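[Q] Does anyone have a clean structure-token version of this?
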Amino acid sequence: MSDHKMEGMGTRGVTRPMMDMEKHETMHGHEHIDSGAMKMSADDRMKMLKDHHNQTLWVYWVIVLLGFWMIASPLTFDYGKNVVEPAGGRDVWLSLSDRIAAMYWSDIISGLLLVIFGWRSLKPNRPYSVWITCFIGIWISMAPFIFWAPTAVAYYNGTMVGVLIIALSILIPGMPNMISFMKMGGNVPTGWSYNPSSWPQRSIMIGLAFIGWLASRYLGAFQLGYIDTVWDPFFGKGTLNVLNSDMSHSFPISDAALGTLAYTLEFLMGFMGGTSRWRTMPWMVTFFGILVIPLGFVSIFLVVSQPLTVGAWCALCLFSAIIMLPMIPLQIDEVIAMWQHMVQRKQKGDSLWKVFWKGGDALSTENDQRSPEMATFVDSPWRVFKSSIWGMTAPWQLTVSVIIGFWLMLSPSVFRMGIETSAANLNHLGGALVIVFAVVAMAEVLRSFRYFNVLLGLALAVMPWMIKDSDMALTISSSLAGLFVLALSFSKGKIKETYGLWDKYVV
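[A] Here you go.
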């Protein structure tokens, strides 16, 4: 096995050892044997770790070179020339001279640390050096908006080099030293009909997060002062009003640029780990889920509350919310599979702390034979796309609820109601929440979320009659929409997949 794996690593040079182990198990037909027979000795694992490190040695040399790049950046680009002020006359926590000095020394010190820890990482079995390098990359991504970088080149340099460092340290070579403790076994959770960590399942998350990254980076560039205006095809100056609002100015940093960091971590974490990461990397699936699910809800709520708090809509902010919303039902199944594995290992007497950080022994030897290879996307894009949304279905009841939600959001404009009236606020917020609950309920594991729309529909049916600044047509429209949403939210719709222990919660 070891010789075979080394050949595979030598031909690719960037493969993750954990993925190699999974691939080896599948290629040699071990889907249905006892995983204990596949255990490797500590010496075998160390040999594999060292051989893999030698094949990916170029990664750490590139990190060292990027360290010198960061040291030279403030000297090459002169952060004190062609400086800009943040948009909208925003007061920031640093003076211009302090902003220049902070970025100057941040890049130089970060570069020196990259050289030191990149050099240390040239030897195998130094996971702490690799992790420190990764966190330096995260800091390089953060520094431009923490210090309100005074020049666009400092912002561009930080966002790009930061992404490269994170990718080079833990994505291309794989998680540091994971080969020394990874448990081999099946990659389909017990009782599940598909693998929620397959590459098609993760590819759609990576794509959506990257699109969100581009949009947030553009909005952040405006708030930081690098561009004078932002494009808005629907709401005129609405985007400018939102980005320069008192709510936005209440943050000590650019909220759009902070969103860029969140999307950066999301699309990079989509690449982390192999197709068994729901059981081999519970900690990573947890953090990825936190970024996508609770923080996603917060981000969406902030966007849909813009008419209430600012009195304006932001087209690209809405676009970002539309990107974020389907990521929640698309990601939750992997979190559920990870939770199921943790519960099952706890029942076996394992330490939850150890399983959380290092994974646990596989309870199933079943490998994924259903998901298509990503390499087939060019020839069969529809087949790969369909496999990327397994676990998420759109029954007609939920689809119609989404359409009604859009109507509620549009109806104040159709009936010529002012955006800051109580009637408009009710329809904007109520319609947005109807859409959010319906789309989240499209995840079969969260189908019960549709019951939130029962309560919401009831509120929309009653509350318009209590508002004084609404006209009769809008009141009737809102009330009927609420009744329809209420009626549509009782039926579960068809469930296509199975989810092991979670099946009893799919109601």
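[Q] Thanks! Anything notable?
[A] Residues 396-505 form one domain.
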